[in-house]
Amino acid sequence: MNTDRFALRHIGPRKADLASMLETIGIESIEQLIYETVPANIRLQQDLQLDPAMSEYEFLSHINKLGNKNKQFRSYIGLGYHAPITPAVIQRNILENPGWYTAYTPYQAEIAQGRLEALLNYQTMISDLTGMELSNASLLDESTAAAEAMTLLFSVRERAQKKENVVKFFVDQDTLPQTKELLKTRAIPLGIELVEGNPQEIDVNDGYYAILLQYPGASGNVVDYTAFAKTCKENHIRIAVAADILSLVLLEAPGHWGADVVVGTTQRFGIPLGYGGPHAAYFATREEFKRQIPGRIIGVTKDTDGKRALRMALQTREQHIKRDKATSNICTAQVLLAVMAGMYGVYHGPRGLKFIANKLHTQTATLADAVEKLGVYQTNENFFDTLSFKVDAAAVQKEALKLEINFYYPDADTVQVSLNETTSLADLNDIVSAFAKAVNKDFSPITELLEKTHLGTGRQTEFMTYEVFNSYHSETELMRYIKKLERKDLALNHSMIALGSCTMKLNAAAEMLPLSNPQWGNIHPFVPLDQAEGYQQMLKKLELQLNEATGFAGTSLQPNSGAQGEFAGLMTIRAYHISRGDEHRNICLIPSSAHGTNPASAVMAGMKVVVTKALENGNIDVDDLREKAEKYKDNLSALMVTYPSTHGVYESAIQEITGLIHENGGQVYMDGANMNAQVGLTNPGNIGADVCHLNLHKTFAIPHGGGGPGVGPICVAPQLVPFLPTNPIIPTGGAQAITPISAAPFGSALACLISYGYICMLGADGLKRSTEYAIVNANYIKERLEGSYACLYVGEKGRAAHEMIIDCRPFKDHGIEVVDIAKRLMDYGFHSPTVSFPVAGTMMIEPTESESKEEMDRFCDAMISIRKEIGETSIEEPNNLLKNSPHTLQMITADEWDFPYTRSQAAYPLEYVSDNKFWPTVRRADDAYGDRNLMCTCAPMEEYIEN
Asked: For 88-129, what is the HEC assignment?
C-alpha cells in the first residue's frame, strides 16, 4: 500500500473488496459501470489538468509555507470584524472535534439533542442580549442578515402599505459599507427603493415601510434612539437594527427601545477572523414574525413519554415546502460557529462578558483621551469600542504600518480605530505612538486605564440569567458539558450518514488542521492585499482548480452557502441580460423535481418561476420544456437544472435540454448539488450550462458542521465572467461586477482551505476515482437492497448515479410510514438517509466514495432487517418495533416492559449493534405540540403551557 497516496485514505472500499462489490452489481469492471451509467456524449475526452497529487505531509508543509506569507499585523479596522480570543477549551473540543464538525443538520432530532441544546443556548443568549422574543439558530453574516431583515419587513407590511405600494427602505448612513452595498443586491430585483441618510433628519411621512439603524454606527458613534423609535412606531415604520453583539452587554438592548428585528454577527464571541469567515450571523425578532423568520429555529417540545425534547421548530418555513412562496432561500446556517459562540457565552457567563466589555470600553475611553491630548479631534461623543479621529489619514497610515498596525481610513481626513478583546496596554501605547509621530508630537505613555464611560444610556436590564450561563466557568466543567452534549449526537465519527443530495463524505484531518493555524485564522478580511499574500495565492489557485473541474472560465468564492450561490448565479445571468438590453428577460424555467431553494432563489433574483413537468421515470419532460421555452422565448431568462437529476439519474437528453434554452435566448444555471457524480467524468461546461454553484460542503469536503458552515462559489462561462460580484472595501469580480453577495470579499475564506487541500491531495486521478467509487458504492447498495426495497428511478441501462431513491410508500399497507424507518434506523446505530425528498414517502441514499464495504454492508443489513420487521407488522396493531422507535436506554432498563417484543429485539436487533451501540437520548419528538407551544429559549418546562 502506497502510504503517500491520500486517495487511498479518502476512498473507502479496499482493493480486495472491489471484486465482490462488482460481482454483486453484476459487472466486470468500474469502466463498464461508468459506461452503463454516464452517457457517452457528455464524457470528458481527457483527464483534468491539475498539479500532481500531494501526500498529506507535502500538503501540510505547503500550506504552512503559504500561511507564513500572510502578515499578522494588529488590525483595528473594525467594520464588523474584531480579533477575538478563542478559548482553547472550545477550540480543542468543538472546532477541532469531528463529533461536532461532521454532524448533519438536526432533522433527526432524537439523535441530535446535544447540538440542539447548544443551539438553544445560542438562541437564548441572542434573545437576551438583543431584548427580542425570538432568535433563529444563526444566518450567514451580518450583511446578509440585514438584507433578510429588509425583506422580512417588506413581506409583513401593513395591508394599507401594500395597497399603496410603499416600497421605501431607509438606510442609516452610518451603516457598514459592505451592508449598504449588499442591500442594493437584494433590493433591486424586489423593487425595494433604498434611501440613505441621517436617521435624525428622516421625514417620517415620506412613505417608508422600515428603517435600518447601525448600533453603534460604523463610525463607532452611539445614539440613543428611544424617542426616534417611538416616532417611527407612531408612523407605522418598522425598525431593523444591526447591532454589535458585545456592545449590547453595556448598551440598552434594541428590543427594549423599539426594534422589530435585530441582526449582527457573533464573530467576536470567540470565532477566528479567518479573512472573513465562516462566522455565524444572528437574527432576532418579535414572536409575531415567527412564521416569516428566515433560517431555522430550535424549539422545546416533549417526546412520546412526555420528557423534554428539542427539535427544529416551524419547519413549514423550509424552502422545500414553500418553494417560490418562501420568505427566503436560506437553507444553510452557521451551526458549528453558532455552537462555538454560544459556548463562549456559556463559558464566560454574564459576569465574564461584562468584564470583557467593560475592559474594552475603558481601554477605548483611555485611548480617546490620550490621542485628544495630541490635539487630534475625536468626533464620537458616545462610543463603545470604536473612535473616529479627524487627522491626516495618510500620515497616520505611514506610521501605523511601520508598527505593523492596521486602522480603517474611510477618507483622507479620517482614521477609525476599533479595539478588540486582544488589546493590551502595550497595544494602546503603540496606537498612540502612531498618531503622535503623524502629528509630530511627544506623548506620555499610558500606564493605567481611566475610569471613564462614554456610552450614553447604559443597559438597565439583566441578561443570561439561566443556569446554563452561570455554571460552567472552569475549564473542567465546560469540557465535561461539551462532552455530555457531544455524546447525544450521532455524527460521521460514529457511522455512515447516507444522506442523498447532501454528500456526507470524509472530512479529512489533514484538510482541517490548517484552520487552527493563527497564520490563517488571524487575518482581517479588509487588510491590504499585500498582507494576505498566502490567502490570495490559495484562493486564486482554488478558483483555477474549480474552473478546471467545471469546465468554466471564471469563479467567485464570495457566496457563503449553496443558497447564496444559487442567488449569485441568477444575479450574474440577470446582469448579463441587462447588459444586452434584455431587461425584460425574467422567466425562469424550473423542473418540478428541482431543489426547493431553486424557485426561492429565482424569486429573490426578480424572476418569475414557470415549472416544467417530469416524466413518470423522473426525467425532465423534454417536450413540455420545449413548449414552454418557445412560449416564453421573448422573455426567457434561465433554466435551473440539477445534474445528475435530483432523482439520481444521468439524463441522456441534457445537451438537448441546454440547447433548447440557448436557442430561445436563455442561459442555463446548473445546481451543483450533485457535482460529486461529475468531477473527472463530465462537467457543467460539457453538458452546456453557463453557470453553476458548487457546494464545497458536499463535493469538496468542507464538513457540514451540524448545518453549516457551507461555501457555495459560482463558476461561469466566459460571457458571465464580467459580472462576478465585487466588494466595496476590497474590489473583486469582473469589469461589470454586480454588487456583493456576502459581506466579505472572498466569503468564508478560511473554510476554502479545506477544499483546496482536498483537491491538492487527490489530484486529477484521485478526484476521478472518487467520483467513480461514489457511483460504485451507490450501485452496490442498490443491488444489496434489491428484493427488499424498490429503486424508484434508474438510468437507461438500469443503473443509479451516485445516489438512489427507494420507495417506502407500499409499507403504508402495514401502517408504516417512511419516518418510522428513519427512527428505527437509530436503533441500528445509523442516521437516516434523506426522507421524503424529492418524492414524498421515499428515502434517498448516497453512501459517497468514503464509506467502506464493511460499513455499507452494516447499513444494508440494517435496512434488510427493518424490511423483515415491516413484514411482521400490521396496520391494526401499531404497538410494534417501528412505531415505538427509537428505543432509549431508559426504556430498555425500565422495570416495566409493555411491548410485544423483547428488549433485545428493540435495542440489539443485529449482532454488530452490541459492539458499538448508540443510544438516542429521547423518544420521538412531538413536532405538533412544540409548534403549538413555541418556546425557543432555555426557560424551564413549567413555563411551557399548552394552549
From this structure: HHHHHHHHCCHHHHCCCCCCCHHHEHHHHHHHHHHHHHHHHH
